[in-house]
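I'd like us to work through together how a protein chain folds, taking it slowly. To get us started, please write out a protein record for me. Go ahead whenever you are ready, and we will take it from there:
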Amino acid sequence: MNIVGIIPARSGSRRIPDKNIKMLSGHPLIYYTIREALKAKTLNRVIFSTDSQRYADIAKSYGAEAPFLQPKEISGDDAGTTLVLIHCINYLENNESYPVDVVVTLEPTSPFRISKDIDDAVNKLLQTGADSVVSVREISEPPHWMFKLDGDKMISFLNVDTSRFGRISRNQLPKLYIPNGAVFVTRRDVVMKEKRVYGRDCRALIMPAERSLDIDTLEDFRYAEFCLRRKI
C-alpha cells in the first residue's frame, strides 16, 4: 500500500506575508512539518506541493520531495486543498506510474504535530476500514454558552434558555471536538472520485491541546515561539 504525505504550501498569504517560510525558533515554519513527516513510519513518501521554486528549494533542503510546482489555477486563495491533492495524485500516477492508495494531508501551520500523531491517524484508517481520519481537539468553549446579538440583546446560538447560562456547569455538557488542522488521512478514491478530504465514514483522532496549535496570526507565531523556547 502506497501512503503519501502531502504538505501543501502556497507562497501567498493574506495575513502574514510568506507565512509558510516565516522563521520560527530558528527554522522556517515548514521545517517542523517536514521533520515529523519524515519520521513517520507509515508514510512511503513526503511530497511538498507549492507554487514557489524558493519554497520548493527550502523544502528539499530539509529532505522532502518537491517534484513539481503547482499551476496557477490551484495556487490561489480560493482553490482549496482538495485540488492540490488531486494535482499531486495525478502527477505521481501519470508522470511516475506511482499508484497512490492513501494521502495524508499535513498543513505546515501545525508545527507541534509529531510523527506519532501521523502514524496513529494512518493506523486508525487501516484498522477501522474507514475512508478518512481527521485529527481533532476537545473544544474549550462549549457552543451551548455562545450567543448571537440582535443589537445588544443576547440570543442563544443553540436555542438554550439564556437564563440558565450561569447555572449550567461544564460537567453537564457533552464533550465536543473540532478539527485542529494537523492531520487528514484520506483514501485515494475519496479524493479523486468524490473530490473530498472528509469521507462519509470519517473517524476522529483526538490530539491534546498542546499539539493542536494552528498558526494563522502573528499572535499565534508569538505563542509558538514562546512554547518552543520554554521547551529548550
Notes: The CA atoms of residues 104 and 178 lie 18 Å apart. The first strand starts at residue 3 and ends at 8.
